[in-house]
């Protein structure tokens, strides 16, 4: 396996060294190839996602295919502009001079993907890596095997496989890949493996983007349009792969005297969305596998929790389905309030006053996203100023993921680095400053033998003060 | 000591959590305090630099103190603007909405500094961390002991010590610090310790900036103003702490035909700068300590190299001085061509065709900087296009560091991340996107039960296809 990984890297490096991935033509051709994949094989993609996750067609198209398609479209539209060096001003210090910042590829990139949005979280980073001119290896998640093998097949058919490869496999293959030297690693997944990836990367001084997770809180204030808020929470939770999404609201915080209203409306809207028998609903993804199913059931069966289920709780072990479940007043030191849930269970924490939410959220690690539903401008300002998270939305959930103008990534335990839109291009580029001077005008004050006069003159140049410069030019050195 | 470090880190975290370092007022007060240090204690700092490095006042002032003052002044001038959230246009996907990117501090950061520009490379990252609203621990290099203790004293005197601390010491103290959880680590030094820092950071998922080094090449083409080129090379090499500078030209490449001219030009300009007895010139820094002196001597004494010295080679062990030394055509497998020299020795490698120089550079690890002296536009374009380095200078060396509009940092073996100017503020900030929506403008197409029509509509929205949206809305 190590031998194979080595051979893969050697082949890619040879391809990269020819310089071909740097050309606009190559990058555009590969992005168009991905677009072709999406257009001609969308049925197969939807089928694979149905097979791996029982993902509804709607989610497969909107959350996965459209996301990659939009990224390709944007990259193709903007690539010329992104690739252009950025001219910058220079100062008196290097006068006369000109300077620019050149974006260049890093070289060989490893993208390690996750199982919950196995198509989008594989190809979207690959789009970024290619747009920036890199050669890339994609390691899709083995937990979504149908998508993994479809990706391998499609990349092999449509892309330039001398510079874009898919390596399938599990821990052994991933470890073999991590032993190699990469110029950048992009990992989406959990923080435990994130630490492992960083440790391997350290050996080669490889910079890394980590898209991790966390417990994304949603604070629900009173005096809001509760129906709209409830729908948006439901869409971001159960409408997103049954809550198996890194930015799904993990838990809710609301006031004690408001919670029953919230629970009632959510129950009503949940029934509108998923019917009276949600376990039979085709609009709900299954849990990815038995391991995660059991993990989630354990949450529900926890003695501290099981009596507080106010909605749902039903499960179907043969189809790996759990109904949308809401749990009220979970103890703050239960396991459920400690680990990322990543499933269709939504605990609600109640507080006396809404401002108490700050203590709850700040007592935990920084999450990938944080949400607040409110019409209170002061509360909104305080939330934005005092909660640190990868990203934030006021009065909605998950949508910042779809805005290409916003960097998408974590902070602290939820990750490092960001991508989407131009941030993807930047994530996979080295920004190289180039300073150019001519041979005319050479300031001899720089050179030894050093004298106080020279020093005085240069210090005024450094401070950019024209008047002082002229004054000190008067004193000879 | 592990106990002190743990306590210090915990204290900083409490202070950070109180929110005080995040205010504009606190940041400004600390930047002003730092500026005061750099202005009122100039003499003391210069003396410390002279004691540690034999650094001439000219270099000490311009390369270190003036640069620190500039960084403070720039941050003070720009801080309001830097702290303001950046408004971002939103697309049809989230209409109606507004968005901004908010810069927030990471929290508690660790700055590990180095010995060659001990004041600049300690205080400039600290200024950056403070301007971004972080609490910070500075670990200066123990190798530059006078500056370490002077900075510790002065920061202790002027700064808010509850949120800005100096921890002095060597490996044990650094290791103890690295065991703590930091929200960002900024390390300047070599790639070996860089790996150690990264591995320690991995345990806590701490993002890191590494400002490392490498063998910075300088290609010298013919048909240039050789006098000016020679002066600039000398200034960037021996005029920069005797070549003990991460961006000094480490080695040069020129054509076989041109080498003699280049050596002559260097020789005559070196004499003009440092006189006939350069080992005793006060304008050149000494080697930092006897360990590095021995290391550099070994590079010169290697059999395959010692016969190729064409300029200099003189040493004064007692005063830790080595004369500006140029070596012609050291073999590829010599020690001097395989480690970062970091001293006043400059090998020149000759090639048949100047373009071979680019191939030579690209066969090595990516350096922190790469330079070319040429009037040939095509050669220059090829160099900029093909050579990957932290930064590039054309007809100049080291000066790109002084330009605040240019990010300063490495790539590959020479590091990751960058700073200077606004890049400093950004380096120590988390860029947090905030999307604002109201309760109006509901798109019920988002919600189950899913229908083909809803799907069609949303597809059109996501691809910005206005006609598609209208059609879907009309049920076509």
Shape of chain A: globular
Question: How many whole angstroms does the radius of gyration of chain B measure?
Answer: 26 Å
Main sheet makeup of chain B? 7 strands, mixed
Structural class of chain A: alpha/beta
Mean pLDDT reading of chain A:
95
How much is the average pLDDT of chain B? 96
Spatial shape of chain B: globular
Percent strand of chain B: 15-25%
Keywords:
heterodimer; A: 477 residues; alpha/beta; 6-stranded mixed beta sheet; 16 helices; globular; B: 476 residues; 7-stranded mixed beta sheet; 17 helices; 17% strand
Topology diagram in text:
The complex is a heterodimer of chains A (477) and B (476).
Chain A: H1 2-17, H2 24-40, H3 42-53, H4 57-83, E1 86-88, E2 97-105, E3 108-112, H5 120-131, E4 135-139, H6 145-158, E5 164-166, H7 171-179, E6 184-188, H8 191-203, E7 208-211, E8 217-220, H9 226-237, E9 251-255, H10 259-274, H11 290-301, E10 309-311, E11 315-316, E12 321-322, E13 325-328, E14 345-351, H12 357-362, E15 369-373, H13 377-386, E16 391-394, E17 415-416, H14 422-427, E18 429-437, H15 452-463, H16 466-474
Parallel strand pairs in A: 3-4, 3-6, 4-5, 6-7, 8-9, 8-15, 9-14, 13-14, 15-16
Antiparallel strand pairs in A: 1-2, 2-18, 7-17, 10-13, 11-12
Helix pairs in contact in A: 1-7, 2-4, 2-5, 3-4, 3-6, 4-5, 9-10, 15-16
Chain B: H1 2-17, H2 24-40, H3 42-53, H4 57-83, E1 86-88, E2 97-105, E3 108-112, H5 120-131, E4 135-139, H6 145-158, E5 164-166, H7 171-179, E6 184-188, H8 191-203, E7 208-211, E8 217-220, H9 226-237, E9 251-255, H10 259-274, H11 290-301, H12 303-306, E10 309-311, E11 315-316, E12 321-322, E13 325-328, E14 345-351, H13 354-362, E15 369-373, H14 377-386, E16 391-394, E17 415-416, H15 422-427, E18 429-437, H16 452-462, H17 466-473
Parallel strand pairs in B: 3-4, 3-6, 4-5, 6-7, 8-9, 8-15, 9-14, 13-14, 15-16
Antiparallel strand pairs in B: 1-2, 2-18, 7-17, 10-13, 11-12
Helix pairs in contact in B: 2-4, 2-5, 3-4, 3-6, 4-5, 9-10, 16-17
């Amino acid at each position: 396996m190590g031998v194979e990984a080595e051979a893969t890297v050697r082949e890619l490096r040879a391809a990269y060294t020819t310089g071909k991935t740097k050309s606009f033509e190559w990058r555009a051709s590969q992005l168009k190839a991905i677009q072709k994949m999406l257009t001609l094989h969308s049925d197969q993609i939807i089928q694979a996602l149905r097979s791996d996750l029982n993902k509804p067609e709607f989610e497969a198209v909107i959350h996965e295919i459209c996301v990659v398609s939009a990224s390709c479209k944007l990259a193709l539209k903007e690539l010329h502009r992104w690739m252009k060096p950025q001219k910058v001003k220079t100062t008196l210090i290097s006068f006369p001079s000109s300077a620019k910042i050149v974006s260049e590829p890093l070289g060989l990139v490893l993208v390690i993907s996750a199982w919950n949005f196995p198509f989008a979280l594989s190809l979207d980073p690959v789009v970024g890596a290619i747009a920036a001119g890199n050669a890339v290896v994609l390691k899709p998640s083995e937990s979504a095997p149908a998508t993994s093998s479809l990706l391998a097949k499609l990349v092999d058919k449509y892309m330039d496989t001398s510079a874009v490869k898919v390596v399938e496999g599990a821990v052994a293959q991933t470890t073999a890949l991590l032993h190699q030297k990469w110029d950048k690693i992009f990992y989406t997944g959990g923080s435990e493996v994130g630490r492992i990836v960083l440790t391997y990367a350290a050996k080669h001084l490889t910079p890394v983007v980590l898209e991790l997770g966390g417990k994304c809180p949603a604070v629900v204030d009173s005096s809001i349009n509760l129906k709209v808020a409830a729908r948006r929470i439901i869409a971001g939770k159960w409408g997103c792969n049954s809550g198996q999404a890194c930015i799904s609201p993990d838990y809710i915080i609301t006031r004690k005297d408001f919670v029953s209203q919230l629970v009632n409306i959510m129950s009503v809207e949940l029934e509108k969305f998923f019917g009276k028998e949600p376990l039979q609903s085709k609009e709900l993804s299954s849990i990815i596998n038995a391991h995660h199913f059991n993990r989630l059931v354990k949450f529900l069966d926890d003695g501290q929790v099981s009596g507080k289920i106010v909605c749902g709780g039903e499960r179907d072990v043969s189809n790996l389905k759990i109904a949308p479940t809401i749990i009220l007043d979970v103890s703050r030191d239960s396991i459920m309030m400690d680990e990322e849930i990543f499933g269709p269970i939504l605990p609600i924490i109640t507080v006396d006053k809404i401002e108490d939410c700050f203590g709850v959220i700040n007592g935990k690690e920084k999450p990938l996203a944080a949400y607040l539903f409110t019409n209170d401008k002061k509360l909104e300002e305080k939330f934005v100023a005092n909660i640190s998270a990868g990203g934030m939305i006021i009065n909605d959930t998950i949508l910042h993921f779809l805005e290409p103008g916003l960097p998408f990534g974590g902070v602290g335990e939820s990750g490092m680095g960001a991508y989407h839109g131009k941030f993807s291009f930047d994530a996979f580029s080295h920004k190289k400053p180039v300073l150019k001077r001519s041979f005319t005008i050479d300031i001899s004050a720089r050179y030894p033998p050093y004298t106080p006069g020279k020093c005085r003159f240069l210090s005024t140049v450094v401070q950019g003060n024209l008047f002082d410069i002229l004054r000190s030019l008067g004193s000879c050195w | 000591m592990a106990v002190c470090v743990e306590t210090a880190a915990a204290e900083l975290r409490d202070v950070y959590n109180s929110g005080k370092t995040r205010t504009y007022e606190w940041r400004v007060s600390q930047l002003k305090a730092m500026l005061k240090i750099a202005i009122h204690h100039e003499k003391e700092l210069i003396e410390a630099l002279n004691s540690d490095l034999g650094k001439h006042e000219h270099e000490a002032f311009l390369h270190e103190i003036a640069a620190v003052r500039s960084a403070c002044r720039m941050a003070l001038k720009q801080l309001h603007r830097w702290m303001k959230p950046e408004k971002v246009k939103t697309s049809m996907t989230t209409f109606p909405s507004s968005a901004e990117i908010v810069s927030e501090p990471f929290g508690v950061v660790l700055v590990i500094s180095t010995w060659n520009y001990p004041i600049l490379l300690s205080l400039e990252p600290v200024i950056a961390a403070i301007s971004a609203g972080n609490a910070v621990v500075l670990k200066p290099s123990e190798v530059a002991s006078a500056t370490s203790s002077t900075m510790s004293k002065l920061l202790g005197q002027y700064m808010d010590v509850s949120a800005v601390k100096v921890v002095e010491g060597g490996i044990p103290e650094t290791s103890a610090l690295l065991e703590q959880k930091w929200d960002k680590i900024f390390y300047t030094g070599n790639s070996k310790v860089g790996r150690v820092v990264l591995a320690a950071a991995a345990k806590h998922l701490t993002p890191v900036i590494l400002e490392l080094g490498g063998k910075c090449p300088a290609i010298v083409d013919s048909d240039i103003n050789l006098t000016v080129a020679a002066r600039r090379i000398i200034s960037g090499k021996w005029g920069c702490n005797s070549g003990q500078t991460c961006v000094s030209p480490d080695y040069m490449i020129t054509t076989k035909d041109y080498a003699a001219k280049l050596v002559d030009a260097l020789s005559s300009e070196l004499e003009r700068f440092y006189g006939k007895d350069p080992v005793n010139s006060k304008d050149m820094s000494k080697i930092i300590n006897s360990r590095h002196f021995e290391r550099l001597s070994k590079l010169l004494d290697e059999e395959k190299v010692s016969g190729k010295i064409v300029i200099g080679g003189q040493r004064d062990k007692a005063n830790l001085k080595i004369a500006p030394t140029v070596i012609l055509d050291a073999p590829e497998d010599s020690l001097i061509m395989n480690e970062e020299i970091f001293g006043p020795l400059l090998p020149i490698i000759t090639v048949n065709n100047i373009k071979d120089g680019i191939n030579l550079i690209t066969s090595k690890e990516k350096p922190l900087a790469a330079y070319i002296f040429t009037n040939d536009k095509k050669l220059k374009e090829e160099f900029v296009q093909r050579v990957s380095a932290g930064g590039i200078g054309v007809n100049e060396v080291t000066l790109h560091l002084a330009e605040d509009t240019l990010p300063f940092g490495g790539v590959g073996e020479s590091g990751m991340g960058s700073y200077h100017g606004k890049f400093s503020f950004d380096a120590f900030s988390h860029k947090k996107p905030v999307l604002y929506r109201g309760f109006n403008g509901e798109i019920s197409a988002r919600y189950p039960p899913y229908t083909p029509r809803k799907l069609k509509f949303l597809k059109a929205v996501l691809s910005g296809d206005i006609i598609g949206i209208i059609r879907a809305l009309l049920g076509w």
